[in-house]
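Hey team,

Filing this mostly as a record. A colleague (T.K.) asked me to run one chain through the structure pipeline before their review meeting, and I want the input and output archived in the tracker in case anyone asks later how it was produced. No errors, nothing strange. Just documentation.

Input sequence:
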Amino acid sequence: MKYFVLLGDGMADHSCPELDNKTPLEAASKPVMDRLASGGVMGLCKTVPDNMVPESDTANLSIMGYPPEIYSAGRSPLEAVSLGITLEKDQAAIRANLVCLTGDGEYENLVMDDNTAGEITTPEARELIEYLDANLLCGSTDRIYTGIAYRHCFITENWNGFRDFTRPHDIMGQYIGEYLPPEPYLTLQRRSRELLENHPVNLKRAAEGKKKANSIWLWSPGKNPALPSFKETFGLDGAVVCAVDLIKGIGLCAGMEVPFVEGATGGTDTDYRAKEKEAENQFNKGKELVYLHVEAPDEYGHQGNAVGKKNSIEKLDSEILAPMLEYLSACGDDFRILVLPDHFTPVATRTHGRGEVPFIIYDSRRQVYPIRRYTEKEAANGPYVPTGPELMKMLLER
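Output structure:
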């Protein structure tokens, strides 16, 4: 038996006026998802406990079978693992976004224009982060490590235990004054803008009509994470195919294979086919479960781009799910496919939202039922699964 999980980050949504009051899932042409929905079990799952924030670390831990109430230590330590950073006992990891702030005057009076700094590329970001590491933290034992695109990691031995942080994607278009972190992190953010505003990378981006990456934003601190092995927990060799350090970190902490995929960016321009081909490669190497994560729907949600989100779902269907279904069908083994988002990222709010997410579990041995479409509304007519770990057990039931 082979198991394939396709996770469209933030794919769930509400009706959008730009899509004739349909959700992106409803508006998208996705014949393969609809075929799997017709031939499998479709329902709703609560991936995030009521007392936790709907973030990707919480939701993906849950879907992978790890109760986030027990295992969530914040997203930054997981990202540190992905970057090859071993946290010492007295160290903490803090996410450092490169963001675009607009406006004039004091730092407190600026506006959060873009939490991705206009989807800055990793090479551009590396130059900026290395500049900050040398000039912002000179004489300090703290470090900033380059991640992917706008996502980076600040390592400190002087964490003051602050927990009341604001996620930059929660305050898009808002003045940042009432959302700033405490000292000494506020001083670091202020100073980062002074260093980055007229950096050659940003001057070049501005000349090309792109947004500047003119500040860091520090959030989601935590200590060293630990997860039990996926193989020991579920009895399966697994792999995680993704481009974002957070999901890579979860896979590495769970002892799963996490390959590098050329062309996978963690943004809207990611190479969908390259990810699908790597998933096939992992199955060919003997992996029994492959968890493939795509960030693009979430990024379009944060941008408030309903059409882009719809288009990304169509690419998930045509460039990943269609060739994967063909591959699995040709292998000669029984297989199951799980398709779902981790959480809502509504276009209207441009941030993560609560709600039970629609899922499909397709089993190659089952009969085909009357035609259904994979949508939030259709899924509400199916079974309700109260937690992500229970959904994983449902997928793997012998």
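Quick notes for T.K.: DSSP finds 15 helices and twelve strands in the chain. The radius of gyration is 21 Å.
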